[in-house]
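Box 4.2: Ligand-aware structure prediction
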Amino acid sequence: MKSYKELPDDAGSNIVGQVTAQAKRVNQRLSSVKHTIAVMSGKGGVGKSAVTSNVATALALQGFSVGVVDADINGPTIAKMMGVRKSKLEYTSAGVKPAITSLGIKVISMDLLLSEDDAPVLWNAHSQKDAFTWRSTMEVGALREFIGDTEWEELDYLLLDLPPGSERLANVVELIPSLSGVVVVTIPSDVSQLIVKKSVTMARDVLNVPIIGVVENMSYYVCHHCGESEPLFSNDDAVESAFQFTLLGKIPFDPKLSQCNDSGVPYIQQHPNNQASEAIVATVENIKKYFNALS
Ligand SMILES: Nc1ncnc2c1ncn2[C@@H]1O[C@H](COP(=O)(O)OP(=O)(O)O)[C@@H](O)[C@H]1O
Ligand SMILES: [Mg+2]
């Protein structure tokens, strides 16, 4: 398939003009955002969305202005985790007003555009063969609109919760050349790290995107009877040796965290003294340290 830049004649729909105008809007919108961070892993189910929503909460509790883009167009979970699923988006001449959480975090997600719980995102394609190309093109288009059309205004941090798959970052980098960096989420299992290493190589060596650091999620489990920590996976100390990047935090598994995520309640506000909350706050401190060291 030709890229939109190569189309000699777009049958009067001016695709090139539209995409260029949208790219300009993305730049304009992001000019008032200090730091844009992509949260990625390459693998699903390791806690990208949980880390994104809780890091956003921790930043907001410290008084920073924060926005979250749910870039997982096919499996959006951020609106639910952040308690804004019932919000209606408001459209104005200046763009779309994002949903706003109880802590003032601005959220945009495909989930806010789908009317029914079980409605899938359907990508129209001429044939099954075309579906993959269309899906990828449509995903980038949706993301461009999410970022370019949303009234973010002044933000200290804009977090992008990426879908699994390291190739997704390439789309984001094309869309946001000013991307500040990537936070990589993994769990201490060989299987996760095998795939996450590919994402790290993609980000650092292929796309030249700075890696802010790695978050090890579900590192251990704290028994609520005896208070002892137990590892959840066999490969306990693997993250530091495998990645040679700043380990931003080791977040334990806490059933309260998934309960809060499921009910859209800010976990670290409800359970500030739990070890997972402390690990999330430590992660945020390390992210801030990364940016302070740059300035
Ligand atoms: N540290 C944790 N403790 C408890 N539950 C967690 C933790 N991290 C993630 N979860 C839960 O695990 C599930 C998968 O996490 P999610 O953030 O949706 O993964 P991903 O976005 O990488 O696919 C969710 O139900 C989430 O609430
Ligand atoms: Mg997710």
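In the box above, the bound molecule is adenosine-5'-diphosphate. The CA atoms of residues 241 and 247 lie 10 Å apart.
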